[in-house]
TrEMBL record:
Tree of life domain: Bacteria
PANTHER family, per the entry: STEROL 3-BETA-GLUCOSYLTRANSFERASE (PTHR48050), STEROL 3-BETA-GLUCOSYLTRANSFERASE UGT80A2 (PTHR48050:SF13)
SUPFAM superfamilies according to UniProt: UDP-Glycosyltransferase/glycogen phosphorylase
Protein name, entry field: Glycosyltransferase
InterPro entries xref list: Glycosyltransferase_28, UDP_glucos_trans
Organism for this UniProt entry: Funiculus sociatus GB2-A5
């Protein structure tokens, strides 16, 4: 048995897939402890896993929710900048408190989220094995891959590579406060300075929730990089839903995730676009607002604060999403095509992959209107190519191994102490990638 610590950003989109991986490892006899700020104790324990508080002196009770409320008001570059400030503080707190907590808890290895730079740094300092996990979109930092925060399509041409490199240069410049906070500890701990944000230092294994089919072509990936598909298994959390209010019409499921979910104007646009179509629109607010706050939406959609996402997607014909990877993968796991309205951070890059794979459409938030959104919805509902491509991705996900394969890799790392190499060879045709 190994005692694994989990370090990831304090967002539900990272907590939930890490919890699924933790439960699978726990089922195999291992011990799993999340290292997180106190506000997340209830969320972690509700997933059936152990919790160890980090940053008790740095964070006041309720402060995380206040930060999320402020972040939810923003979009685009303003949201990205605010996120960098949040991440800088969280990274510094992790570097300050996690080493002692890991020693005190008796943690022997780490599951390190790629989007939390402190996770790998702490493991390097303590000289304990770690597996890097991409709960969000895997970031490769290669010139041919458009940056995760852009809606750019893949173009294997010189101009595109130069564009991509310039965008990453600007990201690193704008992220200097975060890199400085990280490097303060790396210098203190006599570790090499990190100059590029989210450039993984993993040497044993790097696991991504994406299937290979849902990524741009990427040559020369590290041999220890693994596409395994979404981490999913039953959670102890139960969410009620008024199933008796479903009408039997084609179901459209709409979600803006758990952070960017207070934008009433987007909900209004979605409802207006669906009004008059022979569909039933179900909107989940993800806890961002009370249902009463969005009463009177056009077409009287069914609005709930939380929804059992997988159960509803099993009945859905279309998903309208902000481009959060978990909702996207859940939709594809059920063969459901999508219309994406990316708001910030890695959501544009995920939306770009929806377009690339032909599993849906993506509309820029800046020019969003009900007329264009309705046209996109009708295209995706009526043109067979979107459904057919979503069904191909469903099969790719089924074959990818998911959380069980991820746990196999983690166990092999701690058992052997050596890199676990992937035998996956992506084969890409226009629109959809397959693996052999």
């Amino acid at each position: 048995m190994t005692h694994f610590g989990v370090i990831c950003p304090p967002f539900a989109g990272h907590i939930h897939p890490m919890a699924a991986l933790g439960r699978e490892l726990q089922r195999r006899g291992h011990c799993i402890t999340f290292l997180q700020i106190p506000d997340l104790e209830t969320a972690v324990r509700s997933e059936g896993l152990n919790f160890w508080p980090i940053g008790e002196s740095a964070y006041q009770p309720g402060e995380l929710a206040e930060s999320f409320t402020e972040l939810g008001k923003l979009s685009g570059i303003e949201s990205l900048r605010y996120s960098v400030d949040l991440c800088q503080r969280f990274t510094a707190t992790m570097c300050e408190d996690a080493p002692c907590a890991i020693a005190e808890a008796g943690i022997e290895a780490l599951l390190a989220d790629q989007l939390e730079p402190a996770s790998e740094t702490v493991a390097e300092y303590l000289r304990i094995p770690f597996v890097t996990v991409s709960c969000a979109q895997a970031i490769h930092r290669k010139a041919q891959i458009p940056p995760f925060f852009t809606l750019w399509n893949y173009e294997n041409k010189l101009w595109a590579r130069l564009r991509n490199q310039a965008a990453y240069y600007l990201l690193d410049r704008n992220s200097q406060p975060l890199l400085q906070a990280l490097n303060q500890y790396r210098k203190q701990w006599k570790l090499p300075v990190v100059r590029k944000l989210y450039a993984s230092r993993s040497r044993l294994a790097h696991i991504s929730q994406q299937p290979a089919a849902f990524d741009f072509p990427c040559a020369n990936l590290p041999k220890h990089f693994h596409y395994v598909g979404p981490f999913r298994n039953p959670s102890p959390r139960k969410i009620s839903f008024p199933y008796e209010r479903l009408t039997g019409q084609p179901l459209i499921y709409a979600s803006l995730g758990t952070v960017q979910n207070t934008k009433e104007d987007i909900y209004h646009c979605i409802a207006a676009a669906c009004q008059g179509l022979d569909v039933q629109l179900v909107i989940t607010l993800g806890g961002g607002m009370d249902v009463e706050a969005v009463q009177g939406l056009p077409g009287s959609p069914l609005v709930v604060k939380y929804a059992p996402q997988l159960e509803l997607l099993s009945k859905a014909r279309l998903t309208i999403t902000h481009g959060g990877l978990n909702t996207v993968l859940d939709s594809l796991s059920h063969g459901v095509p999508m219309v994406a309205i990316p708001i910030t951070y890695e959501q544009p890059g995920t939306a770009a992959r929806i377009k690339w794979t032909g599993t849906g459409e993506a509309l820029p938030l800046a020019s969003l209107n009900a007329t264009e959104l309705q046209a996109a919805i009708q295209r995706v509902l009526t043109e067979d190519s979107y459904l057919n491509n979503a069904l191909k991705l469903k099969e790719s996900i089924r074959q990818s191994g998911g959380v069980k394969r991820a746990a196999d890799i983690v166990e092999q790392v701690v058992k052997s102490g050596h890199p676990v190499l992937s035998g996956l060879t992506p084969v890409v045709s226009r629109g959809v990638a397959y693996s052999t």
